[in-house]
Amino acid sequence: MGFVSHRVDRKEIKPGDHIYTWRTAFAYAHHGIYVGENKVVHFTTGEKGYKSIQDSCLTCPDCGFHKNGSGVVLSCLDCFIGTGSLYLFQYGTNTYVHISRLRGGTCTIAKSDPPQEVIHRAMYLLQNGFGNYSLVLNNCEDFALYCKTSLLGSNWDEAGSSGQVNGWVMSPLNVIVSSAVKVFRCSTPVAAVVGTGMHCLSRYMTDIGVRKDVVKIKVEDMALLRS
Ligand SMILES: [Zn+2]
């Protein structure tokens, strides 16, 4: 595994791992929980997401399995990775490492629960659903983060846990920085450096391992909450 990129070989991953793959020329990453035997449970936009899996998979008969109306889907590892590469999401990273990451959605300060609990949550949600998919509030990364930690923001319907979204969208600091840049008319390189630093800091402050509004919610209660 590379120190910076977290890129892994498929032989290196273990059941209960949170894995991800970059899609559409690195514009966003798709996240899931590896549950063993070449299978991944992940959260998709719904019909379109699993239809393409079912149509394209030739090797795995239960690829694309999902409950009616649920975006949580089971697929083989090949279909999950698609044409991308495989990466391992990092848990329990220290503050320095977390802030130094330029890109959100690759690590968290929160600790992972034991693999059997993670797999239990993923399989339970495969049967019971994870609510409606929303890019900002409830996406594939939120799903994987929840399975790994059972942590959920008390205002989960206003702010998701996703690092790749929170770095840019949910950050009041980004607004402050862009206003400051306008007021002081910083030269572009300075603005870019300040913006990047603030982006990393704001992502740190919205990390589920740092936020104070997160609570552990049992998966059995979770399904009721989002049904
Ligand atoms: Zn497949």
TrEMBL record:
Q: Quote any Pfam family the record assigns.
A: LRAT
| Protein name, entry field | LRAT domain-containing protein
Which InterPro entries does this entry report, sorted A to Z? LRAT_dom
On the tree of life, the source organism's domain of life is Eukaryota
The LRAT domain, residue ranges:
20-156
Q: Which organism is it from?
A: Artemisia annua
